[in-house]
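Lecture 7 notes. Example A: sequence first, then its structure tokens.
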Amino acid sequence: MAADQGRGSNNVEIEPSESLKTFGAVLKSLRELAGLTQEEFAKRVGYSVAYIAKIEQGKRFPPTDLPGRTEEALGPLAPKLLADAAKTLTRRTGVASWFQQWVGIEEEAVTLYAYECRAVPGLLQPEAYIRALFDCRLPPVDQEQIDHYVNARLDRQLIISTRPTTEFGFIIEQCILDRRVGGREVTKQVIDHLLEMGARRNVAIQIMPRVQEDHAGVEGTMYLAETPANQWLAYTEGQRSNNLIPTPKDVSMLLKRYGKLRSQALDRRATVELLEQMRGAL
């Protein structure tokens, strides 16, 4: 979620860019000219009020289908005006822009899946672990920046509790916990947090054991989201690179890989048993 998911990179939610703020201002002006409140507009275009508010504030990258959804609510000129305003955004393929778009997708998703082989997924990181990740970061960042990044990540995590009908699935490599980023005490907090989150009805956490000769995740991390319109999108990232994947053929391939990974990882009960064993051994 550029993904603020794992390793404490510079891919975190940042202050609104000028282009994002401009798009938000155009949308807000068109909405107000149409005499609609944010609540009324959000209902007509099929997005949540909170998401529309953040787009207008320049804090979220607008979804690509938003301009096309606005004609009925804002009039025939709105789609073209918004599409023109969005062109400067879609040309920007930088880290922050893509991540802000994925964050918006997360907030609206009815299903979210993640496979991580580098670090605990960002939505499952306790605060001490987040700080430990940023303490490891090179080049170093100052304390004020770390506090900003930590608060942004903790804010994102609220979607698990505020969206109880969204299905969350996480597959995490056991080696991530073996690494003990931050030390034993931080690792204990991570395991405790995973056990707590995994007990939620809408959260499934599975550990991929150290030894797995038939492994479908050799090409790396992946994140998958199902939108309210039942469209699947995917997100992948590497060192200082990231990729939002909307093409159905490519997303289908990743969904098949994720399904295979689910069958290869420990089931939920076995995962709890392993986490408890690892916790006891620390």
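Example B, a different protein, same format:
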Amino acid sequence: MSSNNRVGGLLIHGILILYVLLTLYPLWWAFQNSFKRHVDIITSPFALIQGFTIGNYIDAWHSSKVSVFFFNSLLVSMAASFFTVLLSAMTAYALTRLPFRRMNAVISAGLLLAIMVPGATLLVPLYTFIRNFQEIFGFPIYDTYLSLILPYITFGLSMSVVIIRAFMASLPKELEEAGVMDGLQVYGLFFRVILPLCIPALVTVFIISYLGNWNEFIMANLLLSKESLRTLAVGTAAFKDTLNTNYGGLYAATMYSVIPVVVLYVFLQDQIISGLTSGSVKG
């Protein structure tokens, strides 16, 4: 029996290793081509590096405005992720602690429904709303950072509330009762007692939200037309057109987009996993 289990375990691990290799090979292929000359990429795209160069990264960063696109993505992703975490934590606290059962049930059902709605089905009404924002609220947001930050916050709220709510539900209410005895009100309990205890879940939600915002392409391409406001995902696509393709710059720009995300995940993957599972078991 033990030998069968060993064979089965080896088979499963072999399949998983094969899957990992197939997944990482395109990334490795793009990474090594980013250090090749354009002529070497054209003549031998699958060969190892022969004429090593970092010129593709320098040209992409300066000449192709990758630096502008990079900082645009950083600003939008950080701002949207921060407010997603803050609003999600407030909503989760209200759903787990405030005594409005029927209203909480309705809001929870709405959040779960929002998770199941495909985001692509909302693109047309979202675009129309953003273009007509000035007529409704008196100031325009189309072709501004807000045209991305606000939708990113909205789309990220549902799942973020579910994760943080599960964590908050596992916290003992005796902590809040002690805070009430010390004279704390609702906001004091939230910011001084509950929020510091939810740091693992908040960090997890921030990272997941940040990664999603950083890699998002469709809304960034739809809601921003100015080149100076493009995010890195959209700016990378501009390296290719119907007449000419700068393959070296394209691969270098891709690495600028991929490497920060990979490094962030490698160093914080334990934090992400612990945050996702911390509220799954109570007691």
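Note on Example B: The chain has a mean pLDDT of 84. The two ends are 36 Å apart (CA to CA).
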